[in-house]
Specification:
alpha/beta, 8 helices
């Protein structure tokens, strides 16, 4: 799974507006060579306003013009356009894209919601403390489906950032078996005992099904050395233990402020996704 080319916030805005007014959904169906955005990138063009982007520049301006022509004609059929990104567009990328212009209205909301959310990477964050809150706010606008888990129900803010699902679980590690397949897991609860139990549950799931992605634990190398010893006593071998990243955060980004840690963790997850996509 690669990152979806949109955020949950963009999708929410698009679908809410679509309930009130028709639009033309412009989607990149094919991309060849050097192009501003990749396949499945979209923007929704309304008579007034646009949600999302297919890369900006003259390509996007021309696509908006064509989409509004379809709106003005009240077109109902999809239109396909092949575009070479050369001097005629004032863009020298050198690639080519195929765009699909799809007239949509309120009757399409449910189907579009299912279609456009299908590629969001699930992320489970265990811990509602200061760093957990900073990471939630950093990840919320990014193309992740975020589940926030804690054993203390009262720690979650009201309202939650859009697209974030809060889950109270006691014991907290009891939420691990129910995580969506492919989930990245970030562990930063209020106690080391809970952290240890959550990591152990993740390792047990990896041993049984190998269907989790990145597993990261907040803390120092000293903390991880202690955890490795205790997890080995629980029967987890070196191959499984090597699946855990501790400390978390992109190496080279220093600072212990919650916002700095959140930025480093977000960058680490995005890099992980990019490398995964390159291997696929």
């Amino acid at each position: 799974m690669s990152l979806a080319p949109h955020s949950t916030a963009d999708l929410h805005t698009f679908l809410c507006r679509l309930r009130e007014a028709p639009a033309v959904l412009v989607t990149v169906r094919e991309a060849r060579g050097s192009v501003p955005r990749g396949v499945d990138t979209w923007m929704a063009v309304f008579d007034q306003g646009v949600v999302g982007t297919i890369g900006g520049g003259h390509l996007e301006w021309d696509a908006m013009r064509r989409a509004r022509e379809l709106l003005a004609r009240r077109a109902v059929e999809a239109v396909v356009q092949s575009v070479t990104l050369g001097p005629s567009l004032g863009q020298c990328c050198g690639g080519a894209v195929t765009l699909v212009y799809e007239p949509v209205d309120a009757s399409c909301v449910e189907a579009l919601g299912q279609r456009l959310t299908g590629r969001l990477r699930p992320v489970a964050l265990f811990g509602g403390g200061h760093v957990g809150r900073a990471i939630v706010h950093t990840l919320a606008p990014l193309p992740f489906a975020l589940t926030w888990v804690d054993s203390r129900d009262e720690v979650f803010p009201d309202p939650l950032p859009f697209g974030v699902v809060a889950e109270h679980s006691a014991p907290v590690e009891g939420a691990v078996p129910g995580l969506a397949a492919g989930s990245h897991v970030l562990v930063m609860s209020f106690s080391h005992a809970e952290d240890l139990d959550i990591v152990a549950a993740c390792l047990a799931r990896l041993r049984a099904a190998d269907d989790l992605g990145f597993v990261g634990l907040i803390g120092s190398r000293t903390k991880w050395a202690t955890f490795k010893h205790r997890l080995a006593e629980r029967g987890f071998g070196e191959a499984l233990l090597s699946r855990v990243t501790c400390p978390i955060g992109l190496p080279g980004i220093t600072g212990k402020e919650p916002a700095v840690i959140a930025a480093a963790v977000a960058a680490q997850l995005l890099l992980h996704e990019s490398r995964h996509a390159a291997r696929a």
